[in-house]
Design goal:
It comes from Aromia moschata. The protein is mainly alpha-helical and 264 residues long. It contains seven helices and no strands. It is globular and about 60 Å long.
Amino acid sequence: MGFASQLSGPDLNQATRDASPPAAPAPAAAAAPKPIAQQEYYKPKEYDPSTKVDPLVKPEGGLYAQASWITVYPIHWLCRKTMPDCRSEKYKNWYPLTFFLSMVWISFYSYFMVWMITIIGYTMGIPDTVMGLTFVAAGVSVPDALSSIAVVREGYGDMAVSNAVGSNVFDILICLGLPWFINTAIVKPGSTVKVISKGLTYSTLSLLSTVVFLLVATHLNGWKLDRRYGIILLVWYLIFITLASMYELNVFARWNPVECPSEY
């Protein structure tokens, strides 16, 4: 008989516990995963007063520089005299007023631009829809393009794409909905606004196809913005604007009525 057979009761239990293999040490705590480095939010470059350029001072240069300065001098003068420079220490807390006045001036110049383009289009016999698809769209989209270029140079391509998509959503829902609401609910309650453009269905479908094309092209390009991607988008824009303008000019069929002569 073995040693265990000579013990009984509490002595046997104690011997069994003593003979059992030692418990395995507790596993060490798993190392905490390293935090994933996140891209910082876009931060504009710090304002350096030493590099400040006064647009009201006549620059030194050739004829082109002088002509450009004279042309935009009234705009610069009005902006400098009406909007506080919130980049300076004196007016650093005045940014809400600067932003509001900037929107006021943009609205004024946009109205003036649409007015002039309407007159030019009527004089040259070009329908309003074609002028809106080309010159007006390009004019009001210049600020969006410049802001997208600024953030792309800083390496934030996703912000540029979001800006382009968000501005189009704002243009369609707010820039169309708000004027129509004001005219039909406040200026002329109960009235309606007639859209004289049978090519609107074609233009809307073309716009939808452009959105689909943007997503497909971005996916096929590996969600990267490069030179080839930019060329593809530019070519697609030329195709879209050409077909849409031909549609509005009744090249394919007489969809839109001829404008009546007017003295205004």
